[in-house]
Amino acid sequence: MATCYRHPDRETGVSCSNCGKPICPDCMTPTPVGMRCPECSRDRTPVRTMANIHGDPVLTYILIGINVLMFFGSRGSSAAYFDLVLAAGPVADGDLWRPITGGFLHAQGSFGFIHIGFNMYLLYVLGQMLEPSLGKWRFGGIYFASLLTGAFGAILLSSPDTYTVGASGAVFGLMGAGVVFLRARGVDPMQSGLGPTILINLAFPFLFPGLNVSIGGHLGGLLGGALAGYAVTKLSERRSSPLLPVLACAAIGIIALAATYFAARSKFGL
Q1: Which pTM value belongs to this model?
Q2: How far is the C-alpha of 168 from the C-alpha of 213, rounded, in Å?
């Protein structure tokens, strides 16, 4: 597969419609005649790529920082850790903060470093791709909607005594939203590299069952992120209030939180 002419480490199946150079998502500029590279786009209009519309992905860095602080802060106190993890019993009793706090915790023990390292790497890559083009509010809306739909999936498909932690649901949601945005720009997600990344990560629980990966959390986050991404895309196209996409993400998150509560209660016949 060809690699981007500006980023040789990124494989891509998309080429500039004018000069034919292979380009990655960060270098694509949509035009009426297809995707163009920055140089060809500059000949006619100012370049507005996915990486330069809203500047640096500040919120991505903040989210990574919170995850890291929560990881190290919770390692010294098991009591505090288990007061924040996602679990059906406490949620059924009304601990509705756990679907959120559980998404900022990661596994303890030696595996915890691999767990948070892998999630934060993906968050960094996806944040670099999505936040500059969306802005921090819409990016944040998709992140938290995905986090909460991931919590719903985790509770729905887990046993009542299972504890779930990790940013995987939110990260999978960003991947789902990324697929929606790429398709809206006429890019095949499988050729961009994002599609194969999703498939590989979905296969992890089956390839390595001993890792205790939350299949429900991954699927819930992926579907929720795709739904939030679709809502953001459609509402942004209308050029109405910029708050509408954020409110749509908030609505998805609130519905997911309510669904998580009732799913948790159903685990105990309540």
Answers
A1: 0.79
A2: 9
Residues 72, 130, single domain; the answer is: yes
Q: Which amino acid is at 51?
A: A
| Residue 239 confidence (pLDDT) | 66
Which residue carries 């016949």 as its tokens?
269
Q: Are residues 82 and 160 in the same domain?
A: yes
Distance of CA 82 to the CA centre of its chain: 25
Range of the domain at 36: 1-49
Domain count, the chain: 2
Residues 132 and 227 in one domain: yes
Residues involved in catalysis: 168, 218
